[in-house]
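User: tokens in, sequence out, please.
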């Protein structure tokens, strides 16, 4: 799940103090004590706090307070606390809380923003911690995976999803059962999507249409050369053939995509929620009332159970528009786990990450709960016994431990496991833009991108009038200078390879 940037509404962000009130029920003050300790040795438990996006469900709360708390105490001598932040406020609140030196030891963010995170002093070098406390993790996270989080020779995070990754976020996951019921078999073009949505609206008026504007899959379709996003807030893309940095919002592919999305609004096929509540797209899809959402490889397997809980006959399938175009491996995972410079217990954070990847038992326990109660394994497949989410599977996914649900077709699994075999490695793989010299410009550009350009991108405003005004704001904010700085660093990076 990248989960993308939240569309910033005029209401602004909530105060950090409100978020603290939403902490997990097992939270207590730092330095909380009790009986426990590493390897079962009685002693004082060290507190380790994780900033975590999303909403806490009842079973997760119970799990954190009981089974998980017991394992953390006995295995690591830790009292692990989770501070839950709703998706729509997550990135803003992360910045607020870290700037206020809140006691956060571990958090998740997008790997493409790593350099900006480092420049804001939100991530510490981890090489010594990995050397001392992360050796078990290295058995299932290869060196090339960790290279994705290296800046100036130092490792600043753990790229957390180790799995096939070419054409990441360029797929669309659809309700295949509805697609077939309206007389279609597959999807290859943007027009196929529009036809699907139109037919579904006519034959199934109880459904609510698309759950997502899928701008990256559509960009793939409309782009003459494939793009790889290489700067903050989707501002700059790398042309895989030209080896050049471009302003994404000024590209022809963006314009074509935005015009298509506007046509979807004009046809009554998109709702306002797709723009105003952009980050709730996955939640919408899982209600069983929507047609598609942005996909990544295996997304249909990832959300199938949640969708079926609300629509038992639902069948999901992921499509790559313009499948004849090349697929590129552009990153070593889209997400990163980081330990702040101000973390009170960085050792505890690294111990936890290492523990999670230490064994399949630990991995399954954290991601799926208690075997026999929350999940069961039969014939090499995992069957979730409840609809509850524990630690996000996509956040910690590792192909050494990954299991699939019983209903997943073996052909789909085989396709998943071999997906990267025909992929090309992007020349920009490993590039991390350092925003140090254009930080003020980036802040202004993020504002324009998150408001004006987000509305244009989704088709929420008329393209012919809204796009020129948004571009004018982007120019005034300094996009040309920003792209020039990205290009300068990109050239240095490519020359060093």
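Assistant: Sequence out:
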């Amino acid at each position: 799940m990248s989960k993308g940037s939240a569309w910033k509404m005029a209401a602004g962000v909530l105060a950090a103090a409100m978020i603290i009130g939403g902490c997990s029920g097992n939270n207590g003050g730092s330095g909380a004590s009790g009986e426990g300790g590493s390897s079962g040795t009685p002693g004082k438990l060290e507190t380790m706090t994780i900033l975590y996006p999303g909403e806490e469900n009842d079973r997760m709360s119970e799990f954190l307070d009981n089974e998980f708390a017991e394992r953390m105490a006995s295995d690591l001598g830790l009292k692990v606390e989770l501070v839950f932040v709703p998706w729509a406020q997550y990135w803003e609140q992360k910045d607020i809380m870290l700037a206020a030196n809140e006691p956060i030891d571990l958090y998740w963010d997008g790997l493409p923003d790593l350099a900006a995170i480092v420049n804001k002093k939100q991530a510490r070098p981890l090489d010594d911690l990995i050397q001392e406390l992360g050796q078990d993790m290295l058995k299932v996270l290869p060196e090339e995976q960790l290279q994705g989080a290296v800046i100036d020779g130092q490792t600043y995070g753990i790229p957390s999803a180790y799995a096939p990754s070419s054409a990441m976020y360029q797929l669309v996951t659809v309700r295949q059962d509805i697609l077939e019921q309206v007389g279609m078999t597959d999807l290859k073009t943007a027009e196929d999507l529009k036809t699907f949505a139109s037919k579904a609206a006519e034959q199934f008026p109880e459904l609510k249409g698309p759950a997502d504007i899928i701008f990256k899959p559509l960009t793939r379709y409309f782009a003459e050369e494939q793009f790889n996003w290489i700067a903050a807030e989707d501002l700059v893309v790398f042309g895989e053939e030209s080896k050049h940095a471009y302003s994404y919002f000024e590209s022809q592919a963006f314009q074509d995509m935005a015009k298509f999305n506007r046509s979807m609004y004009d046809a009554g096929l998109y709702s306002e929620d797709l723009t105003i509540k952009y980050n709730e797209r996955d939640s919408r899809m899982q209600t069983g009332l929507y047609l598609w959402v942005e996909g990544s490889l295996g997304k249909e397997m990832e959300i199938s159970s949640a969708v079926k809980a609300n629509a038992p006959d639902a069948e999901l399938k992921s499509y790559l528009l313009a499948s004849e175009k090349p697929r590129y491996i552009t990153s070593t995972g889209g997400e990163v786990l980081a330990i702040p410079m101000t973390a009170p217990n960085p050792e505890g954070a690294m111990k936890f990450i290492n523990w999670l990847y230490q064994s399949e038992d630990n991995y399954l326990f954290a991601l799926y709960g208690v075997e026999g109660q929350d999940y069961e394994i039969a014939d090499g497949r995992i069957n979730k016994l409840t609809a509850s989410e524990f630690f996000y599977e996509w956040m910690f996914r590792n192909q050494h431990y990954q299991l699939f649900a019983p209903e997943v077709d073996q052909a789909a699994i085989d396709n998943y496991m071999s997906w990267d075999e025909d992929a090309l490695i992007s020349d920009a793989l490993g590039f991390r833009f350092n925003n140090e010299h254009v930080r003020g410009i980036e802040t202004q550009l993020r504002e324009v991108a998150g408001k004006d350009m987000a509305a244009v991108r989704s088709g929420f405003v008329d393209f012919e009038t809204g796009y020129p005004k948004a571009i004018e704001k982007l120019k005034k904010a300094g996009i040309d200078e920003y792209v020039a700085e990205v290009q300068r660093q990109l050239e240095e990076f490519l020359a060093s390879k």
